[in-house]
Amino acid sequence: MLYHTFSKKTVSYSYRKSIIPPVLLPSLNQFGSESSHRAEFLNEIPIQIYEKVSQETLENLCETIDHLLEEKYPSEFDVSLSNGVLTIQLGQHGTYVINKQTPNRQIWLSSPTSGPKRYDYINRHWVYSHDKTNLDELLNKEFSYILNEYVAIVSLPFCES
Fold it and tell me: Are residues 35 and 75 in the same domain?
């Protein structure tokens, strides 16, 4: 027998001896859950596209930020990209970590300024679902504040300006 329990954001299943095969439950949209929207989104972007877009995004961010920091602050900051993890060390301002989350098809950001965020690739942008902010917009704002000058990281691949 299949038992299911609904909570605000999760669905849990437990199976007891039964010959009934597992079945898919209807969309959780009727319960006002964002998880059904997330599931629909995951089905829309093929893994190959996600891999290409996320890797090119990280590589482009690495190159752009490294060039920006190297030009003005050659010895104070460090930028590195390894195995899908971009690390930006900004001395006393903290460390940014931006990484691929392949199972979720997201890019995760850990910011010393704004905290953790998870970005979905929607309409050619990496978007934070809670406030609809694009990844490049947030990085522009935070790096401009940290460096005390306007910074424009607008060359993210596949993103429209």
Answer: no
Buried b / exposed e along 15-41 (16+ C-beta atoms within 10 A): eeeeeeeeeeeeebeeeebeeeebeee
- Shared domain for 122 and 141, answered yes or no, is yes
The tens digit of pLDDT for each residue in 95-122 reads: 999 999 999 999 999 999 999 999 999 9
State how far Cα 115 lies from the chain centre.
Answer: 13
CA distance 51 to 56: 8
pLDDT at 157: 62
Q: With H, G, I as helix, E, B as strand and everything else as coil, classify residue 59.
A: helix
**Quick one: 139 and 67 in the same domain?**
yes
Domain encompassing residue 64: 47-147
